UniProtKB/TrEMBL annotation:
NCBIfam families: prc. Its EC number is 3.4.21.102. Residues 1-25 form the signal peptide. Pfam families: DUF3340, PDZ, Peptidase_S41, TSP_NTD. GO terms for molecular function: serine-type endopeptidase activity. Residues 173-205, 214-229, 730-742, 765-780 have a biased composition (Basic and acidic residues). Keywords: Hydrolase, Protease, Serine protease, Signal. GO terms for cellular component: outer membrane-bounded periplasmic space. This is Carboxyl-terminal processing protease. Coiled coil: none annotated. Residues 278-350 form the PDZ domain. One of its GO terms (biological process) is proteolysis.
Length: 787
């Protein structure tokens, strides 16, 4: 029967996920669970009761979340869980009872402990010869659980052998890479020495003072590469067990309620207080803390980055690669953070603005000592994921010189509480500067952009089309609404490409679909985008809880309330936005996208709206694709992608890997030989192009929100990662410069081909004209794609 609860409350449209303080022990998580269940029934698009069917789906999700490889539970365990809870979890949750979650998790902990003990014994007593003809499945998420302990033991011997084999091969690969690197460095040094004129003999320099000796690392502190394969395998599973044991009731309830939420659809999600805080940080690109990037480092957290101008940077004592071992709030006692989860350490360091946190560190330059540093927390801007741009001036070698504006956008961010951060405002600043430089065309790069703020997607669309509808939405009643962009005329009306891939989702698909339907921009990239055509809103659970109850750990519910539709009537749900000009991609064979998720909402269509076509005539897509096909046929980079995609597809379909060392070694050597050959051939092409164009290559200038208004553009040679990210990071020993520098013209293949497509568009196309407002002619040609 239908269980009614409160009426919906208004909340921000669209969603993602982020961090807050640890929940208080008093929080009644049974009450939280009950309210989340009622909220799902009453607010989710499907209006699905939390009944026996959903109960079964919830149990399925929970077991798979805990044991996604199906290696810890047995069929006997799973059968027992189903007998007790497959049709009763709804009753338990609605009666505020979360004991099933705890019971199942405790059994899971015990099963992991049993397997780690089995692994220890097997490593001590079994001899793994790696000479059998056996294979093991790569992905086991669809495989049945082992029938009993005997079958599980047999499976685990294969798992252990596979892990040891992988570590052994990793060691051999590392040795090979280090040898090649040393040979390359020696050759470079010899070449440099040969090029120098004979130097005069120098007076011998005074010997440098001896450095103090540092005690040898204990076995527990060894770097992974210094451990044997057996030690590394044991360490990995021991870490897993420690992590599982560290989870408290709040964490278990988070897993449990997330399993309930995803029973409704893949994008409905219960978010703990930590995750809610992380979501807000992700959307606003700022947080209150010390301005340091932490990474897990064995028994603590390592400083892997420091935000330039942030609290830690201004204080000046914290250095890269320092290791945090304890944290104190103000004048309170220190809390040891060794072996704590990274998230818990982060929570302890973040806090209220203008409060002090003290951290005890092991300095990178004095591993035998410790130091205490006090830092006053403050607001920290996160610049790395903000919009940025490039101005690319093409070389004469490629034909008539073009000025190409390239805007990089990794998500649609917005400060939903204070309105101080805006994607559309940032992109407009970059766009106007590019226009000031008189660009011939624009590329909006939405690759790997998972979405974000719906409002920002609509405003951003308005920078490129005149006032009109951008997206339609339908709620559970079937009521259809639409949202318009309100700019009287576009900021930029020149030639335009939107570059997408399979990871472009949600708000990215709204913008790409609208610009495609308006005949405003050419869509280039993977065959289609992700296919997420649903709207989520954030509902704070505490708003639904009784007034006097403890609500500190209640968290939030991100719930699907509507479906998106294109203005031409189709949905992007499941199908995504199909590229006008598809390029070969590895992602096209990967099991990603909405269609590969569990419980996705179905695809459907609604009537189109009327909207003004930006241009009366369609793009010359057939001619452009013919040119692209001709280029790709002779482009080794894309031929390599096609070849690798086929190999990967065969491997995915096979879903097994050999436990025979000779076979694995042969596969590794074949792969390395093939990739070495590709690298060698690429290096030849890079050299040939460099010799041909001399100094007349691409001229690239980088624009960030910090330098966009400055009179002089920053050339690529003067641009650093720190300028883009605003963060100083530990230097990596990366040979050969940036990834792009390894390709001809110093431009990665998809980027270079997109520039070629823009040139095709300029050569084949007539100047775009803004059509008078007419009835939409696109509906008949609509590629059914959805939001």
């Amino acid at each position: 029967m239908t269980r009614n609860f409160f009426t919906p409350v208004a909340a921000a449209a669209s969603a993602l996920a982020l961090l807050l303080p640890t929940a208080q022990a008093e929080t009644n998580f049974g009450q939280v669970a009950m309210h989340v269940a009622y909220m799902l029934q009453n607010h989710h698009y499907s209006k699905q009761d939390f009944d026996d069917k959903v109960s079964g789906e919830m149990l399925h999700n929970y077991l798979n979340m805990l044991d996604f490889k199906h290696i810890f539970f047995t069929e006997q365990d799973v059968a027992g869980f189903k007998d007790k809870y497959e049709t009763t979890l709804d009753d338990h949750v609605l009666m505020r009872n979360i004991s099933p979650a705890i019971e199942i998790y405790d059994i899971y902990k015990e099963r992991v402990k049993e397997r780690v003990e089995f692994l220890k014994k097997a490593l001590e007593t079994n001899k793994f010869t790696f000479d059998s003809k056996r294979t093991i499945q790569i992905k086991r998420d669809k495989a049945p659980w082992p029938k009993d302990k005997a079958e599980q033991d047999k499976l685990w011997l294969d798992i252990i052998e596979d892990n040891l084999l992988a570590e052994r091969i990793a060691d051999e690969t590392r040795e090979r890479d280090e040898k090649k690197k040393a040979e390359k460095a020696a050759a470079k040094k010899a070449e440099s020495a040969a090029a120098k004129p004979e130097a005069k003999a120098e007076e011998p320099k005074a010997a440098a003072p001896a450095k103090p000796e540092v005690a040898a690392k204990k076995d527990k502190d060894k770097d992974d590469k210094d451990l044997t394969p057996k030690e590394r395998v044991l360490k990995d599973y021991t870490r897993l067990l420690e992590s599982i044991n560290e989870n408290d009731t709040k964490d278990v309830v988070n897993f449990f309620l997330s399993s309930l939420a995803t029973a409704y659809d893949p994008h409905t999600e219960y978010m703990s207080t930590d995750e809610s805080d992380n979501f807000r940080i992700h959307m606003s690109h700022k947080l209150v803390g010390i301005g340091a990037l932490l990474g897990q480092k064995d028994d603590g957290a390592e400083i892997q980055g420091i935000v330039v101008g942030g609290p830690a940077d201004k204080q000046g004592q914290l250095k890269l690669n320092d290791r945090i071992i304890a944290v104190a709030q103000g004048d309170d006692e220190f809390v040891d953070v060794k072996y704590l989860k990274l998230q818990k350490i982060v929570d302890m360091i973040r806090g209220e603005k203008n409060t002090t946190v003290r951290i005890k560190i092991v300095p990178a330059d004095d591993p035998a000592g410790t130091r205490i540093i006090a830092i006053v927390r403050d607001e920290v801007p996160l610049k790395e994921k903000l919009a940025n741009a490039e101005l690319l001036v093409t070389p004469p070698d490629l034909g008539k010189t073009l000025k190409v504006g390239w805007i990089n956008l990794s998500n649609f961010y917005a400060d939903m509480e204070n309105g101080t951060v805006s994607t559309s405002a940032d992109v407009e600043r970059l766009l106007r500067r590019l226009m000031k430089e008189k660009i011939d065309g624009l590329v909006l790069d939405l690759r790997d952009n998972g979405g974000g703020s719906l409002d920002e997607a609509i405003k951003l669309t308005g920078l490129f089309v005149p006032a009109g509808p951008v997206v339609q939405a339908k709620d559970w009643r079937g009521s259809i609404t639409w949202r318009d962009c309100e700019n009287e005329k576009p900021v930029y009306d020149g030639p335009m490409i939107v570059l997408t891939n399979k990871a472009s989702a949600s708000a990215s698909e709204i913008l790409a679909a609208a610009l495609q339907d308006y005949h405003r921009a050419l869509i280039v990239g993977d065959k289609s985008t992700f296919g997420k055509g649903t709207v989520q809103t954030i509902l704070p659970v505490e708003r639904y809880m009784p007034f006097f109850s403890d609500k500190k750990g209640a968290g939030d519910l991100k719930v699907t309330i509507q479906k998106f539709y294109r203005i031409a009537g189709g949905s992007t749900q499941l199908k995504g936005v199909e590229a006008d000009v598809p390029l070969p991609s590895i992602r096209d064979v990967l099991d990603i996208g909405e269609a590969s998720a569990e419980n996705p909402l179905p695809y459907d269509t609604i009537p189109p709206r009327k909207y003004p076509l930006f241009r009366k005539d369609p793009f010359p897509i057939e001619e452009i694709n013919a040119r692209v096909k001709s280029r790709l046929a002779t482009n080794p980079e894309f031929q390599n992608v096609v070849d690798e995609a086929k190999r990967l597809k065969d491997k995915i379909d096979r879903n097994t890997v050999s436990l025979n060392l000779q076979e694995r070694e042969k596969e590794r050597l074949d792969n390395e030989a093939r990739r070495d050959k590709q690298t060698e051939e690429r290096a030849k092409r890079v050299k040939e192009v460099a010799e041909r164009i001399k100094d007349n290559g691409f001229k690239t200038y980088h624009l960030t929100l910090d330098n966009v208004d400055k009179p002089d553009l920053v050339p690529e040679s003067a641009f650093t990662k720190e300028m883009n990210s605003g963060m100083r990071t530990a230097s990596k020993d990366e040979e050969g410069g940036s990834d792009e520098s390894k390709f001809p013209y110093g431009v990665e293949p998809v980027k270079l081909e997109t520039i070629h497509v823009l040139r095709d568009l300029l050569e084949l196309d007539h100047k775009p004209t803004t059509a008078a407002k007419t009835e939409d002619k696109a509906a008949a040609a609509d590629k059914p794609q959805a939001q």
